[in-house]
Amino acid sequence: MTEDKNVDIREIQTAKLRQAKGSVVVRITNAIRAAGLEDGSFRFDPHAVEEIGMVPAIGVEERIDGRTDPLASSIRFEGDGSVMMLTVPQDVLEALEIDSDEINWDNPPELNVWAGDQLLAFERPDERTVQIDRGNESED
To answer: Could you give the CA distance from residue 4 to residue 94 in angstroms, rounded to a whole number?
Structure first.
């Protein structure tokens, strides 16, 4: 019998990239809680973006940092511990077509964050141009 490895995910939040101690981080308390892992780490798979259009990050209950595994990030806590964040590895930024050297920190890029059982997924928000008739055309 084969085990079903599919995980249902849902969009939880949109979060801006931030700078913290020389790293690019994302504050995603709601998504981490929705993934059901409030202590531990996530390991990113930037190569999956080509197949699924998102960068998944699989949660584990052990703490792994980027020095041990450059694609992993332990959950970090900010302030009184109520804000949770992850460091976004350089390979993930590149997969999402974000150049960390050219980020305007006054208006940083945002990521849509999805969550499922011990899983997060990141994507760039879609930008759309929509024409709307404002109904204020003058009649001659």
So the answer is: 30
pLDDT per residue as tens, the chain (140 positions): 445 578 789 999 999 999 988 899 999 999 999 999 988 999 999 999 999 999 999 999 999 877 889 999 999 999 888 999 999 999 999 999 999 999 999 999 999 999 999 999 999 998 655 567 777 655 55
Report if pTM > 0.70. Answer: yes
Residue-level length of the chain: 140
Torsion angle of C-alpha atoms 34, 36, 42, 45, degrees rounded to 10: -60
Helices (H), the chain: 29-34, 49-52, 90-95
Q: Return the SS3 of 43.
A: strand
First-to-last alpha carbon distance for the chain, in angstroms, is: 74
- Most distant CA pair in the chain, distance: 74
